[in-house]
Amino acid sequence: MSVFTKKAFSSSRCSAYTIKRKTGNLIWAFARAIFLIGFSFAILYPLLNMVTRAFMEPQDLYDSSVLWVPQHFTLANFEIAIKGLNYGEALFNSVWSTCAATLFQTASCTFAGYALARYNFPFRKLAFGLVIFTLIVPPQLTMISSYIYFNNLHMLGTEWPIMLMSLTGTGIRAGLFIFIIRQSFKSFPRETEEAAMVDGAGHFRTFFSIMLPASVQVVVTVVLFSFVWYWNDVFFVNLYNREFWSLSNCIDMASYQFTTYPEFQGFSEFDPVISNNFRSVAAILIISPLVILFIVLQRYFVESIERSGIVG
């Protein structure tokens, strides 16, 4: 076999292998896309169905032929939901209470995580173990003792119990946030702090000028998760301050107001179809600020997940 023939044979084999590999990659990419699209649709289907039904009039809700596109498009559902929820007051209460609790909890968890990661003190491992232990203790286990404690302090019926829990690092999922922040600070080399101390920086200046700015992405993760959990919290609000009118706990209070408006005369006051549709519209109004928040902070959130130790 000549040299030319060998080169031609080798070239044909390489071309066949390249075509086979590209074909396999194309098939795998197509199958993966189909799987992801189907999986995403299964997750988003309830939300899509809820959004489409929010623009339907009552006759469309009872019409089995109406699935996705309403025959009688209306915005009255949102207008009635806003009235029934007293959306302005509930939104204001939710924003200020959630922002305050998130700020307090982020600060306390950041200090605790930094101390557990960078300082050596007696029983440090025991303290971190107790922090992890709080992740597996359900809040229902401590609700009676905490209720009695805050009742003795005459704080029930106010926002002080939730604020104090956030400020002391014992709020909602505080153990998880301390763990995330500890993992981030633990990844920094010791030389960073040593160089700062050589330049005359103390502990607080090192923390606020060097360590904290380098962990902005992780702090954003804590802020986002904490904000979402406090925004959706119903358990602690109803336990300590049942009369607090926030978006998370006002749906049940306002459910039956939905059918008292003239637009829905002729329908039963306790009609489950209309009542459930109202709850769906109210849920859309409640999660809308969270969706906007995630869209604005999406870049920081993705970067923080990579550095926080949640994956990898």
Based on the structure given, which CATH architecture of the domain at 87-249 is correct?
A: Orthogonal Bundle
- Top CATH class of the domain at 87-249: Mainly Alpha
Mean pLDDT, all residues: 80
User: Helix/strand-derived class?
Assistant: mainly alpha
Give the helix level as a range of percent. Answer: 55-70%
As residue ranges, the low-confidence spans are none
Looking at the structure, what is the overall shape?
Answer: flat
How much of the sequence lies in strands comes to: under 5%
What is the fold named in CATH at topology level of the domain at 87-249?
A: MetI-like fold
Tally of alpha and pi helices: 15
Largest sheet: none
Order of helices and strands: HHHHHHHHHHHHHHH
- Distance separating the two termini: 53 Å
Question: Can you put this structure into words, describing what you see?
Answer:
It contains 15 helices and no strands. By secondary structure, the chain is mainly α. Helix 3 packs across helix 14 (272-296) and helix 5 (124-133) packs across helix 8. It has helices at residues 3-53, 58-62, 76-85, 87-118, 124-133, 143-152, 160-167, 174-186, 190-198, 203-211, 216-231, 235-240, 251-254, 272-296, 298-307. Among the domains are: 3-43; 87-249, Orthogonal Bundle (MetI-like fold), CATH 1.10.3720.10.
Layout of helices and strands:
Elements: H1 3-53, H2 58-62, H3 76-85, H4 87-118, H5 124-133, H6 143-152, H7 160-167, H8 174-186, H9 190-198, H10 203-211, H11 216-231, H12 235-240, H13 251-254, H14 272-296, H15 298-307
Helix pairs in contact: 3-14, 4-7, 4-8, 4-11, 5-8, 8-11, 9-10, 11-15
